[in-house]
Amino acid sequence: MGYKVSVVGVGDKIWSFICHNTPPPLLLSRIDDDEQLFEALQCSNLVADILVLGESLEDTIQIASCVRSIDQKVLIIILCSTDKYSQYNKLLEKSADLHRGVDTWTIADIKTLPAVLRLATSHTLQNRLKRDQKEPQAALLPSLQIHPGKSIAIDPLNHILDTVNTGILTVNTREVILSHNCCLLSLIGIEAKNIVGSALANVLPNRLYADVYRLLALAISSNPQSSHEILKHTRQREPRYLEVTIAPLPNHGGGINAQEYAVLIQDATHYYQVENELKEEKERYYITQQYMHDGVITTDIDGNIENMNPVAETLTGWPVYEAKALPLDSVLTLLNSASHERLPNPALHCLKSNHIIESSTPCIAIDRDGKEHTVILSSCAPVRDKDDNIHSVLIVLQNLTRTHKLSLEITHQATQDTLTGLINRQEFEKRLEKSVASAKQHNVRHALCYLDLDRFKTINAHAGHVAGDEVLRDIANLLQSMIRSIDTLARLGGDEFSMLLVNYSMERAISVAENIINAVREFRFVWEERKFEINVSVGIVEVSNETENAMQLLRQADLACYTAKDLGRNRIHIYRAEDNETTKRQTEMIRVASVTHALKDNRFRLYCQPIIPLSSNIKHVTRYEVLIRLLDAEGLIVLPCNFIPAIERYGLMTIIDRWVISTAFRKYSHVFGSNTNTCIAINLSGNSLNDETTLGFILQELESSDILARQVCFEITETAAINNLALASQLISELKKVGCSFALDDFGSGLSSFTYLKNLPVDFLKIDGSFVHDMVSDSIDHAMVEAINQVGHIMGIVTIAECAESMDVVDQLRLLGVDYAQGYALGEPVPMDSFHISRERYN
User: Fold this and answer.
1) What is the pLDDT of residues 276-322, one digit of tens each?
2) What 3-state class would DSSP assign to 171?
3) Which of 201, 195, 208 is nearest to 244 (CA)?
4) Residues paired with residue 527 on neighbouring β-strands, in sequence order
5) 806 in Cβ contact with 825 (< 8 Å)
6) Is 167:265 a contact under the CB 8 Å cutoff?
7) In whole angstroms, what is the distance from residue 390 CA to residue 507 CA?
């Protein structure tokens, strides 16, 4: 005879598994969804002793409740995922109807389900046989008309019954107590008196009586059968759990006496508490397994898999219900990360050695689909019982796949130039060091080329930094296409590149450099219908067994490159040891001499760039920064970065500063008018800050010109101020007394920005452009701008952001509450001589 099991909504894979692993006498029937199930219930077509529900149903608990209301005898098993196991159990505990007869199993335990189904049939066997034989069923207790029979003579057993820890009483169908033992009195908390002949309702506490009455009715209605339940009972405000069993007593002929019943009451509080603790421990285990970042696998003592957590499922590619009972080697494949040789079975190795195996060496786990995962077999430990016998093995795999991937990304970012995708200066220096070592060890020669773009600053000045960035990317791609894959190309910064040509003679290196010069010369960059020409100067130095180190090579190549620029640009210069100092002095002298001649020839020009307020709440004061430019012999504009460094090294910056101050003061009235709120910002170098005569010079120039002190703001760099803190503080204080204001330029680029800020009484804080330029795409730069702005405002200092090259940056600055912004998005530098013509658009 078969016993029907209906399986509802658990998916094709689990249905197939149950079919293949469930032998007779179980008969399986499948219902695909809750709609089909409800239809079967309404039509009374669902005939099953066991019902298996899957969590793919819309409301599994509601369905279970509906089934139980129709048929109390059907056993319901709910399959759920591990993360919902605890949730379902809590819902079932809250329902009096579902607390019994409904069991919860995780899909992780699917392997044991067939055995559970077979075991469950034993509980319904007797009822099913009675139902098949169509025996008449007794009426419920209230309608019984059975005369009381004789009580069972248990006197000979009194001594034994009084010594057990179970309360025992006998009753008839009229609820009259026929006998009891001593344990019953203390168990239910009633006085020691003769209760034989009393009504059951007068002896038992109300709540306990109601439950015993219900179970007695159930036993009688089962014609007659025993009934069993664990009841929650409160005594002296402490909850207790009583296990109550009611069974018909035998008659003298060995049959069943349908009129007399034994009631057995046992204190199950301790067992119930232990069961709950085990249940809670099981739930904690499942939750811990679910949310661990490491893979966990348990095997039996034969090395066959018992369980896996979700991380282990990902690392192996096997779902736990398929992997259970399979040998570990067929599911987990571990390879040596260096040799790719397969590692021995960790479970069997652990069982053989009889101790914990630990490792910190990464290895490779190959999943079911052949995908590689970086892991560490961090622990493989035998699990022992209370008798110290090993019953399983616990394997912990630390999942390093994401960590390894992030490590590679971080390493890549640390070695890569984000703009061009080439390697950066730091990584290039490392590779150059290796080439120096190989030259000494193997007596080979390499060539180092240092490249600097000519006319690139013109693109930045006239088309903006966005166009300049595009040029650098195009040039990087061009240069990369002209060298071999074994050679190295790097962007060192700005418009400077470097190439390491492996196993190259100087002749071949010169040939490559010439090809590059020609290719760059032919390169045409078009931006907004404007064409720009670019040239390149190249310095070459040989890497040989006489080379000292990489830093020396870079200095020599840099010197050779700048010599090429000073000798006319768009050419190659080869470094030779004998002309080191001469070339260095010559290069610096050429630059200083050109600046000196420019002063005599009046080839310096002043430009103005607007500083725009970002809030309508700011008091309207028109502000401009005064910038200096140089006209070279060809009449082309030369930016300060190409001549200021040499002037600073030779201590001549004070001359330039004073020329700018005198010229700007003299032209102010002509450009902006005599009665205006316009304020101009003028840069002061570290040389001027360190010169004690600077204060007197500025005061004299203010006195001899029409400009007012309140119309002048001096900008000093953070680094220069820190190096000359005492003089800088004195100069700022004296000039602020007469009405001048001060701005701290390039703030954030130094190492001690916030430390020294409180010692400098400045009015404005100019946030370094290196943070502002990429703040939209770089969260770190964004955070730096925000922090500097907040500190400035806390100290009562007005903030100005440099290098606002796009409106996206301007919008972000406005959202952060930055007061002013300066950059090509808001206005490019304009010659001061013609400024009165174009200034209207900035006002």
Assistant:
1) 766 666 666 665 555 567 888 999 999 999 888 888 898 899 998 89
2) strand
3) 208
4) 530
5) yes
6) yes
7) 74
Cα torsion 363, 366, 371, 375: sign: negative
Q: Which of 658, 605, 637 is nearest to 833 (CA)?
A: 605
> Under a CB-based contact definition with an 8 Å cutoff, are residues 328 and 334 in contact?
no
Q: Which amino acid is at 60?
A: T
Q: Which residues contact 757 (CB under 8 A, 6 or more apart)?
A: 744, 747, 765, 791, 795
Q: Contact, 754 vs 791, CB < 8 A?
A: yes
Determine the pLDDT at residue 245: 85
Quick: pLDDT tens for 720-755: 776 667 778 888 899 999 999 999 888 876 544 566
How many residues are listed for the chain in this entry? 843
The reported pTM is: 0.38
Residue 137 gets which letter from DSSP?
P
Please name which of 773, 584, 607 lies closest in space to residue 680, comparing C-alpha atoms.
Answer: 607
Task: Output phi, psi for 291, to 5 deg.
Answer: -105, 5
| CA gap 545, 814 in Å, rounded | 57
Structure tokens at 589: 């002298």
State the average pLDDT for the chain: 79
Q: Does 607 have pLDDT greater than 90? A: yes
d(CA 472, CA 452): 11
Residue 151 has pLDDT above 50, yes or no: no
End-to-end distance of the chain based on CA atoms, in angstroms?
Answer: 99
Helices (H), 673-778: 686-689, 694-704, 718-723, 725-738, 753-757, 769-772
The rounded Cα 540 to chain-centroid distance in angstroms is 46
**Around 19, how many Cα atoms within 13 Å sit in the side-chain half-sphere?**
10
Q: How many Å apart are CA 520 and CA 535, to the nearest integer? A: 6
Q: Which of 77-91, 576-590, 640-654, 746-760 has the lowest mean pLDDT?
A: 576-590
Which amino acid, 148?
Answer: P
Which amino acid, residue 200? L
Gyration radius (Cα) of the chain, Å:
46
Report d(CA 269, CA 187) in Å as an integer: 12
Which one, of 674, 610, 657, lies nearest residue 832 by Cα?
A: 610
Give yes or no for residue 819 having a pLDDT over 90.
yes
How many Å apart are CA 234 and CA 267, to the nearest integer?
12
What are 682's two structure tokens?
A: 């003028």
Residue type, 204: L
Q: Strand ranges (DSSP E) for 202-361? A: 227-235, 238-250, 256-267, 295-299, 305-308, 333-336, 357-358
Beta strands in 337-389 (DSSP E): 357-358, 362-366, 372-384
CA–CA dist 719, 725 (Å, integer)? 10
Find, among 567, 558, 587, 562, the residue nearest to 449 by Cα.
Answer: 558
Block residue for tokens 């033992």: 181
Instruction: Pull the structure tokens for residue 619.
Output: 């008091």
How far apart are alpha carbons 535 and 495 in whole angstroms? Answer: 11
User: How many of the other CB atoms lie within 10 Å of CB of 827?
Assistant: 19
Determine if the peptide bond prior to 205 is cis (ω within 30°): no
Paired sense of beta strands 333-336 and 362-366, if any: antiparallel
Burial group, residue 443, by CB count within 10 angstroms (0-12, 13-18, 19+): exposed
How much of the chain, in percent, has pLDDT values that exceed 70? 76
